[in-house]
Design goal:
Order of helices and strands: EEEHEEHEHHHHHEHEHEEHHEEH
Radius of gyration: 21 Å
Number of helices: 12
Distance between the termini: 20 Å
Strand content: 15-25%
Bound molecules: iron/sulfur cluster
Number of strands: 12
Largest sheet: 8 strands, mixed
Strand order of the largest sheet: 6-7-8-3-9-10-12-11
Shape: globular
Length: 338
C-alpha cells in the first residue's frame, strides 16, 4: 500500500476524551466496548479504525451522548475539556460544541424538509439568529462547503441531491453552530471514489481553516492515510494500537494492524490482498480479543489480556509480542513470531 500521510502535530490538552469507556448490551450484559481510552486534541484529525463490530461507532455515539436504547455505559467516563460530561452532552454541547455527520446523509436529512429549511432551523436554534439572518447564513455556508448555486440548493429536497451534495449539505448543517469538535462516522463510505476524495479534501480544508478537532470513524486505511494525523485501531471493542498515522502505517506494531494493511488491495502490486482469517469474535474472554484470528498468537494469548504498552517510537500497542510478559517465552522468540 502506498502511504502518503500528514505529519503528526504535537497537540495541546485533549478537548474530548473517553477514559476506560465500557459499553454493554442492556439485554445480555455483553461488553461491546471494553475499556477504550481516546483523547482528541484541538486542531487534529484522529482516525478511529476497525472492522464492523470493533466498537468504533458505539464509542463515537457515547461521545455524542447518543447511545442506542439497547446499549448503556457501564463504566468509564466521557470528558469535555477535562470535565466529566457523561450523557449530558445532548443537553448542552451537541451541535454547538460537538457536532457530527454520518455515513448516509440522505437518511440523516428529513425527506419532508428542503435543505434551506433544515439549515435555517439549525442556524436559528444553534446561533439564535432571526429567520432572515439564518437564510443568509445558510446560503453562505452552502457556498463554503463547495455547493454551487446555493439559492437552488436551499429549495431542493434531500432526494433531489446526489450523495456528495447531500453530504456537503450535512457538513454545512454540522458547522452551523461553529463546533469545536466534528465527529465524522464513515462520512465517505456510501460515496463513489471521486466524490469520496472531494469530501475528504473538503473536511481537510475546513479543519485547516477553522482549527476544528475531527474524530474520523472509518474502516478504510486509505481514508486514514489521506486525512488523519493520528490513528487508534480498535478490535472487539478494545484498543489494539495507537500512534501517529505515518508511524503506524509505515511500521505497524500490532498483528491486527498488520493484518488490516495486508487485507487491503494494492493497485500498484500483483500481490493479492490477504484476508484476515475467521469471523469477528462474539464477546470478551480472559485473553486478547484478536487471539482467535491472530496468526502470531501464542498459547498464553488466550489466557492473559495484553496491557497497553507505550513503545519507543511513541506508538501504543496492546500485544504480548510488544511486551515481555508472557511467562517462559523469550523476547527473541516473540520477535520471530511477530
Ligand atoms: Fe496476537 Fe497474542 Fe498479540 Fe493478541 S496478544 S495480537 S493474540 S500475538
Amino acid at each position: 500500500m502506498q502511504v502518503d500521510v500528514k505529519r503528526a502535530a504535537m497537540p495541546p490538552a485533549p478537548i474530548l476524551e473517553a477514559r476506560e469507556l465500557v459499553l454493554v448490551s442492556r439485554e445480555t450484559g455483553a461488553r461491546l466496548v471494553n475499556g477504550v481510552n481516546l483523547a482528541l486534541h484541538p486542531g487534529e484529525i484522529l482516525a478511529l479504525v476497525g472492522e464492523s463490530g470493533s466498537g468504533k461507532s458505539l464509542t463515537a455515539l457515547a461521545l455524542l451522548g447518543l447511545l442506542p436504547p439497547g446499549v448503556e455505559q457501564a463504566g468509564g467516563a466521557v470528558l469535555f475539556e477535562g470535565t466529566n460530561i457523561g450523557g449530558r452532552v445532548g443537553d448542552s454541547l451537541r451541535g454547538k460544541v460537538v457536532s457530527a455527520i454520518f455515513q448516509d446523509p440522505q437518511a440523516s436529512l428529513d425527506p419532508r424538509w428542503t435543505i434551506g429549511r433544515y439549515l435555517v432551523d439549525r442556524f436559528m436554534r444553534l446561533k439564535a439568529m432571526s429567520a432572515r439572518q439564518a437564510q443568509t447564513a445558510a446560503a453562505d455556508m452552502l457556498a463554503q462547503v463547495g455547493l454551487a448555486n446555493p439559492a437552488r440548493i436551499m429549495k431542493a429536497y434531500p432526494h433531489e441531491l446526489s450523495g456528495g451534495m447531500a453530504q456537503r449539505a450535512m457538513i454545512a448543517g454540522a458547522l452551523a453552530g461553529e463546533p469545536r469538535v466534528l465527529i465524522a462516522d464513515e462520512p465517505t463510505t456510501a460515496l463513489d471514489v471521486t466524490t469520496q476524495a472531494q469530501i475528504l479534501d473538503l473536511l481537510e480544508d475546513i479543519q485547516t481553516r477553522t482549527g476544528l478537532a475531527v474524530l474520523m470513524i472509518t474502516h478504510d486505511l486509505g481514508v486514514v492515510a489521506e486525512i488523519a494525523h493520528r490513528m487508534l485501531v480498535l478490535y472487539g471493542g478494545a484498543m489494539m494500537e495507537e500512534g501517529a498515522t505515518e508511524v503506524v502505517l509505515a511500521a505497524p506494531s500490532h498483528p491486527y494492524t498488520r493484518a488490516l494493511l495486508a487485507s487491503m488491495p494494492d493497485l500498484d502490486s500483483d500481490i493479492a490482498p490477504d484476508p484476515i482469517p475467521a469471523a469477528p469474535p462474539g464477546g470478551f474472554g480472559r485473553g486478547c480479543p484478536f487471539a482467535p484470528r491472530c496468526l502470531s498468537a501464542l498459547p498464553a494469548c488466550s489466557d492473559a489480556k495484553p496491557v497497553i504498552t507505550r513503545l519507543a517510537n511513541g506508538q501504543a500497542s496492546a500485544c504480548h509480542l510488544n511486551q515481555n510478559v508472557v511467562p517462559g517465552v523469550a523476547r527473541e522468540m516473540l520477535d520471530v513470531a511477530g
